[in-house]
Amino acid sequence: MSSGLVRIPFTEDLLPKVQAFDCGQEPWELEVSNWIKAPRGGGGAVDDLPRNQVWLYATDNGDLVGFGSFGETSQKWPRSKDPPILASIIPMLGIAKEYWGQPPGPRESRYSTRILEDLIVEAVAHQNERPILILFVNVNNQRAIQLYQRFGFVELHKPVTDKNTGFVNKRMVLDLTSP
Fold first, then answer.
1. Residue 142 and residue 135: Cα distance in Å, rounded?
2. Which of 61, 72, 65, 123 is nearest to 93 (CA)?
3. Which of 25, 54, 59, 62 minimizes the C-alpha distance to 38?
4. Cβ burial 19-47 (10 Å sphere, 16+ → b, else e)
5. How many whole angstroms separate alpha carbon 119 and alpha carbon 92?
6. Shortest CA distance to 52 belongs to which of 93, 108, 96, 2?
7. What is the three-class DSSP state of 34?
């Protein structure tokens, strides 16, 4: 990570550090905040370990800016009728509300950009066996959709409805083999 932002591998021992994490009050924002805070057995980040990697991102002073997760899945690609291939996935990504649009200056320097860049670097390290990176984003989360589109993510297939939450999510993909 670049100066001013530290990546910390998430473990169950760090649950107390994330209990005040807040990335907003919209239903999809609460889902993200609740995921990182959930205790073992609660269907959150701790339960996703070690299947997925989860990192906290903090300032040099230790203030929690956000978190990101990364793992492996399969995905039908490029068409929904094609056989599934191995893919990298960002299961969850959250930026604390107080750090939205921060730090001031060009958007390339913002925490959200730098965290997503870091997760893409992880995916690129696996591009030979997993040529695409996918994520799901609530169709109403325009801030996140715009961020992902800036990085070249495009919508893949039709939106899907999460059976647990009822949320309609866009499935977005980044082709890691394209220049």
1. 14
2. 65
3. 54
4. eebebbeeebbebbbebbbbeeeeebbbe
5. 11
6. 93
7. helix
Residue 142 CA to residue 148 CA, distance in Å, equals: 10
122 exposed, middle or buried (CB, 10 Å; 0-12, 13-18, 19+)? Answer: middle
CB of 68 within 8 A of CB of 115? yes
- What gap in Å lies between CA 166 and CA 161, rounded to an integer? 6
Task: Specify the amino acid at residue 49.
Answer: L
**Single-letter amino acid code for the residue at 172:** M
What pLDDT does 4 receive?
A: 83
Task: Please check whether residue 87 is in contact with residue 127, taking contact to mean a CB–CB distance below 8 angstroms.
Answer: no
- Architecture of the domain delimited by 6-175: 3-Layer(aba) Sandwich (3.40)
Question: For residue range 37-85, what is the model confidence (pLDDT) as tens digits?
Answer: 999 999 999 999 999 999 999 999 999 999 999 999 999 999 989 999 9
Tell me: the pLDDT tens digits for 108-151? 999 999 999 999 999 999 999 999 999 999 999 999 999 999 99
Bridge partners (DSSP) of residue 138 are: 169
Q: Structural domain boundaries of the chain?
A: 6-175
